[in-house]
Amino acid sequence: MWRVVNFLQDISHESVDSGRPMCHSTAVTLFRLNLNSGESIFSQVVFAAKKALIGGEFLPGQAFPSVRTLAAELKIHPNTAHKAIQYLIQERLLENRPGVGTVVATLPEARAGDKKRLLKDEVQRLVVEAKRVGLQVEEVIEAIESEWESLERPQEAKRK
Asked: Is 57 exposed, middle or buried (0-12, 13-18, 19+ CB in 10 A)?
């Protein structure tokens, strides 16, 4: 089962009657989620949000969807939406601003153990799964390079 949900980017103040998802009085940005069975909804929401944040689809200081908006648009339980937002705050990707709400933080520097964990655990998982399905190392490298480039493209090029 999968579902794609888009939060449309429009920083202008539009009327609430426009039908677009609104966070306070500002429309929120593009956020895509494909729900897959076999993985927790929480993990999928966190990954999709991280991908959007790192890929430049959100700007520092920009409003992030509220718990209520996130839950309604993704059709998930509000507790799951709250847990995901709190996790992203803990990871320093989002921050709470009194009187404003949850906003996108400036991307933080990697913590000391982040790089080591990535290179050990995550790459190991990737290699095991790639070998399991019969991929060659060249195919894995090509896929990594392609994904890397997609996150580095200027935002305008992504929307065309």
From this structure: buried
What the chain holds in terms of domains, given with CATH numbers, is 16-104 (1.10.10.10), 112-159 (no CATH)
Q: Which of 59, 83, 80 has its CA nearest to residue 71?
A: 80
pLDDT recorded at residue 34: 81
Taking a C-beta distance cutoff of 8 angstroms, is the pair 21, 29 a contact? Answer: no
Residue 87: other Cβ atoms inside 10 A: 17
Q: Which residues does 25 contact at the CB level (< 8 Å), separation at least 6? A: 13, 16
pTM over 0.70: no
Mean pLDDT, all residues of the chain: 79
Burial class (CB in 10 A: 0-12, 13-18, 19+), 83: middle
13-35 per-position pLDDT tens digit: 333 344 444 444 445 545 778 88
Compute the distance between CA of residue 95 and CA of residue 101 in angstroms, rounded to an integer.
8
For residues 88 and 48, is the Cβ–Cβ distance under 8 A? no
Residues in the chain: 160
